[in-house]
Amino acid sequence: MNTVLHIKELIEQNLGKSLYWDEANGRITLEVEDLVAVCDLLWRSPEAYFDSLSCLTAIDNGPEKGDLELIYTLYSIPNHLTFHLRVVVPRELPNGSLPEVPTVSHIWKTADWHEREAFDLVGVKFTGHPDLRRILLPEDWSGHPLRKDYEEPDTYHGIQVKY
C-alpha cells in the first residue's frame, strides 16, 4: 500500500464507515470516532502495517471553540509512510470530569507515555490505560498547564513558581 487514499479505503471497507478527510500543508488527516478499531486495523493489516505510534499531540482549541483535538502520528517502517488520525472531544463535560478517549497502549507500547503526557498537560483521560498518572508534574499539581485558560499558581508547597 503506497498511498493515503488506499488507507482511507481500507478503513472504510473494513469498518463500514465513511471518514472525514482533511488535507492541509501536504498532510492528510482522517478524523475518526472508533479510534481503537481503526488503530488495530492499521496495525494488523499487512497492506498498511503501521507498526509505530510516533507521536500523540493534544491540542486545546480554547474555551470559545469548546473542544480538544488529539492527533495520532502513525508510521509504517516497512512502507516508509506517515499517517495522521484526529480525534475531537469536548473540552468540558457537564459533570466537570475530564474528556475520555480509549487507550491504544495495548496496540503500541509507546502510547503509554504519550497518553500520560496528554493527560498530565492537557487533561484527557485515557480509559483502559494501565498506569494513567502524571508523568511530568507532581501527582498533587492542580490543573493542566497546556490548557488555554490555565492559570499558573504563584507557589507550590511554599516554593515560588512564577518568576
Describe the protein's architecture and organization.
Its EC number is 7.1.1.-. Its main location: membrane. It is a peripheral membrane protein. The protein has 163 residues and is of the alpha/beta class. It has one domain (4-148): 2-Layer Sandwich (Beta Polymerase, domain 2), CATH 3.30.460. Helix content is 23%, strand content 30%. The protein has helices at residues 4-15, 35-44, 62-65, 111-122; strands at 20-24, 27-31, 52-60, 67-76, 81-90, 100-102, 125-127, 155-156, 159-160. The strands form three sheets. Strands 1-2-5-4-3 form a five-stranded mixed sheet. Helix 1 (4-15) crosses helix 2. The longest helix has 12 residues, at 4-15. It is elongated.
Distance between the termini: 52 Å
CATH architecture: 2-Layer Sandwich
- According to CATH, the homologous superfamily is NADH:ubiquinone oxidoreductase Nqo5 subunit
- Indicate the low-confidence ranges by residue numbers: none
Under CATH, the topology is which? Beta Polymerase, domain 2
What share of the residues does DSSP label as strand, in percent?
25-35%
Count of discrete structural domains: 1
Give the helices and strands, then pairings.
Layout (H helix, E strand, L loop, with lengths): L3 H12 L4 E5 L2 E5 L3 H10 L7 E9 L1 H4 L1 E10 L4 E10 L9 E3 L8 H12 L2 E3 L27 E2 L2 E2 L3
Parallel strand pairs: 2-5, 6-7
Antiparallel strand pairs: 1-2, 3-4, 4-5, 8-9
